[in-house]
Amino acid sequence: MVKVRFAPSPTGIPHIGSTRTALFNYLFSQANKGEFILRIEDTDRKRLVTGAEEAILESLRWLGLKYDGEITHQSQRLEIYKKYVQQLVDKKLAHEKGWSNLGKTPGK
Hints:
Layout lengths: L2 E4 L9 H16 L3 E6 L11 H12 L8 E2 L4 H13 L18
Parallel strand pairs: 1-2, 2-3
């Protein structure tokens, strides 16, 4: 099954680029009998804007785009990410104080 997501950051009102992405992903999921997932990228706490998430939801409602399941908030998944980051650090695929080694081939 096809799963696509729309992952806006609640840092202001939705702009045309994010709206286009939501529309294309929604249409793709519908054409392929898949799921359209909404994931709020709220980990950048300094840039969060009060009311921005509601503006995102309102824009989706206005467009008639219905997401499947519950809304996922990235900030609620930090423990999951910490677990996998630690695995990468333990395998020496990442540094504890930065991401500069991520994506490099081990031993090179």
